[in-house]
Design brief:
Helix content is 19%, strand content 23%. The protein is α+β, with helices and mostly antiparallel strands.
Length: 214
C-alpha cells in the first residue's frame, strides 16, 4: 500500500499547485492524468509522475490579473493578499469563480482603472464570462480573504469579503446580482459584520484590528 500513499501525496500536491496558480490570477491550470503513462501500482522512484499541468488560460476567457499594490516598500499585507471562492452563485449547477484583488498601496503607480475583485460565471465547456459589474461584486478594497455562505437562509449563497480595511457583505438576490448590505446589517447588529473575526475553512484573518495605511 506504500504506492497508494505516495499517489495520494502527489495528487494533493498537484491540487495545491493548481489553487496557488489560480490565486495568483495569471494562470488557470488543469491537472491532467496521463493514462498511457500511469500504471498501478505505480512506482514514483522512476521520476515520472504521470501528472501534467497545462496552461489553458487563453481558452477559458479569464483575463483577470491580480495586483498586490507593491511599490518596493515591502508592506506586510502584500504577502497575504489574494484568494478566491468557487461556488454556484446563479444556481445553474456550474461552479463559478470569485477572485480577490489587492489595491494600490502608497508609492504604487496608479495607472488605469483601480484594481477590483472579479466574478466569472461558468458557461460550461470550461468557458467563463466576466459578470463582475452586472453582478455588482466589484469591491475595490484590499482583499485578504473571502467566504461563501447563506447568511440569511434564503437559499442563495452570499459573499463575505475580508479586506485590509472595511469588510464587505454581499447578499445574493437570486437573480444573478448581489447587494452590498454591509451597513444595513451593521445597523441591525448582525454579528457577522460587527464582530472582529470571521471564521472560514482557512486560517482566521483579523482585519478589524488593523488600520489602513495612509
Amino acid at each position: 500500500m506504500q504506492w497508494l500513499g505516495a499517489s495520494v501525496r502527489w495528487l494533493l500536491l498537484a491540487r495545491w499547485v493548481g489553487l496557488a496558480m489560480l490565486a495568483a490570477g495569471s494562470v488557470l491550470a488543469v491537472v491532467v492524468l496521463a493514462p498511457s503513462r500511469v500504471r498501478y501500482p505505480y512506482s514514483f522512484s522512476s521520476g515520472r509522475l504521470g501528472i501534467w499541468l497545462c496552461d489553458v488560460t487563453a481558452e477559458t476567457g479569464i483575463s483577470w490579473r491580480h495586483t498586490d499594490g507593491s511599490s518596493g516598500r515591502k508592506y506586510i499585507v502584500e504577502t497575504v493578499t489574494a484568494g478566491l471562492a468557487t461556488f454556484d452563485y446563479d444556481g445553474d449547477l456550474l461552479i463559478d469563480v470569485y477572485f480577490l484583488n489587492g489595491s494600490w498601496l502608497p508609492g504604487c503607480p496608479r495607472v488605469g482603472e483601480p484594481p477590483r475583485n472579479a466574478l466569472y460565471r461558468n458557461q460550461g465547456a470550461f468557458r467563463f464570462q466576466d459578470v463582475t459589474l452586472l453582478a455588482g461584486v466589484g469591491d475595490l478594497g484590499y482583499g485578504l480573504g473571502v467566504a461563501v455562505g447563506d447568511y440569511n437562509n434564503d437559499g442563495f449563497p452570499d459573499l463575505y469579503v475580508n479586506n485590509f480595511g472595511p469588510n464587505v457583505l454581499y447578499r445574493n438576490n437570486g437573480d444573478g446580482t448581489f447587494t452590498d448590505v454591509t451597513q444595513q446589517e451593521l445597523l441591525q447588529g448582525t454579528s457577522l459584520v460587527r464582530g472582529p473575526r470571521f471564521w472560514t475553512s482557512t486560517p482566521m484573518v483579523i482585519s478589524t484590528f488593523m488600520s489602513p495605511i495612509t
